[in-house]
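Work package 3, deliverable 3.1, input record:
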Amino acid sequence: MRNNQLVRKSYLFPAVFIFLTAFSAGCAGSGKEPAESKMSGADENVSFMTVEELMREPKIDAHAHFMALAAEDEKKFIASLDQHNMSWLTISTVGTDWANLRKQISLAGHLHADYPGRVGWVVSFNLENWGSPEWRRQAIETIASGVKNGALAVKVWKEFGMLLKDADGSFVMVDDPRLSPVLDYIESRGLTLTAHIGEPYNCWLPLDSMTNQRSVDYYSEHPQYHGYLLPEAPGYWEQIASRDSMLARHPGLRVVGAHLGSLEWNLDELAARLESYPNFAVDMAERIYNLQEHDRDKVRDFIIKYQDRLLYGTDLVSGWGDKGVEGDLEKLERTYLSDYRYFATDEQVKVHWISPTTVVRGLALPASVLRKIFYENARKWYPGL
Ligand SMILES: [Zn+2]
């Protein structure tokens, strides 16, 4: 795959882009062809999808987590994915909790072997041994063994920048030269790096200044990750700068930034990174409600412009809730149906994660763009998926 070509390709459609922007303000209902597209006569080839049509399309959730799944629940879970024609890229994560990470790696390898059409996976490596002479050799061994079992990518998590420290107490950033040989190895194997670096902008604000209920809930429950309460940790822009510096130092490494690259609050800042780093794409996991906070037409224009660089993802998890597999599948159903409605139609969508009364209008993206963000981009940015 040549991502440079992908980037250039996205500029080949300015006429379609302008046309879509022009009629988007008025398209009605969830039908395939908003009336304006016929009336304008500008491009009758643009088609749309209903929720039902998008549900039937092949799709990939490029950011999900099988944290645990009882053997007797596997078939039921996979049947739900079948129903949505959705595959999961399950991401193993948190190197500073090696025992838990090893369990995720083992479950992911097993689910991929049993359901190769429905489950792809991302490996990660131990960081509990950071600073020991053998950590790097062990990290590379874990990655190599993951690849043997079908892993397509390697995850680095926000522990770089926010948790992991050297013996002298200084925080280890993701552009640390000691990590470089591991990133070089990932690149040499043709793997993708999945990078969750930093946190949403809200993380560095007090709870009562955050822009959505989801951030308030998350940082109330996880004060250990609440940047506002951690003045000794590097701040928001230091996190972003370290990720950018890592991208600049590894231009040949294909990187998918998790969670809109932690630039969910400002699409211009995100666009600037997509322009600067042609080998960088982002997933939307757990940040669709941030898109829903922005001006609707601005989001729509952004997605159409960067339609080759955005991957659908949710951060859905199996095995963490207190309601068992039924609870996980209920949430899956609710999330996917709401997201299809938001991206495919221009109907009203309730977003309780912003506030109990928030309602936003769907984006009514063209079918060709939906196919990219829900499927084709994941296969391009995670070759082998
Ligand atoms: Zn995640």
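The two ends are 13 Å apart (CA to CA).
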